[in-house]
Write a structure and sequence with these properties.
Elements lengths: L1 E5 L2 H18 L4 E4 L6 H12 L9 E4 L1 E3 L10 H8 L11 E2 L8 H14 L5 E4 L21 E4 L2 H7 L12 E4 L2 H5 L3 E6 L5 H9 L17 E6 L7
Parallel strand pairs: 1-10, 2-3, 2-6, 3-5, 6-9, 9-10
Antiparallel strand pairs: 4-8, 7-8
Length: 241
Amino acid sequence: MRIYKEKDYEAMSRRAANIIAAQVMLKPDCVLGLATGSSPIGAYECLVGQYRVGDLDFAAVRTVNLDEYKGLGAGDEQSYVNFMNENLFSKINIAKENTNVPNGLNEDADGECARYDEVIAGMGGIDLQLLGIGNNGHIGFNEPAESFAKGTHEVRLTENTREANARFFSSLDKVPTAAYTMGIQSIMQAKTILLIASGKAKAQAVRDAFCGPITPQVPASVLQLHPDVILVGDEEALSLM
């Protein structure tokens, strides 16, 4: 495991973007597992900047996103399809057909989750998986549970997670109660995992994940078993390490 302690969010974002950029340069047709939320926005901005000056080419890159809210589609401004388009995909030369996000409008949960697992398998797996971490230790939308979920699955979002994401919606009532999320097995099968964390609110979750016992009650703790994990955090997020 490699740990990079950066001064602040901007420095953390630059470091994370450079790690992703190196993967794209090393393997132009790589498969990137991507995340949403506030944590990766700065890294995406840095990647867009590198693309605009001609340092990066995403023409052959393929992507799979971690998750999507159930009930939201591309037309909803709070969907993760829309998030990715606004923050990254529309600003680089990636082919739309090479980007993948679970279909939140598919009411057939079992069918959609099986389809998404097939998409990942058909790509030959993920070269680099970007993760954030929730205040309760969740990765993707894999919430604290009695066991680690293996494949893509439907999850009921905890109130902790819904409250943390309410800032993106007009009110807590508007935050979906369920999501489709990539499973722990798919995440763990990525060749490299890059987890980013920023702010004092994430400090306990980071410590529990990397310094505590491996338990499904702290989903990110399973990353201790992965052979190639990179943790990039700012000083506040790593203050308890």
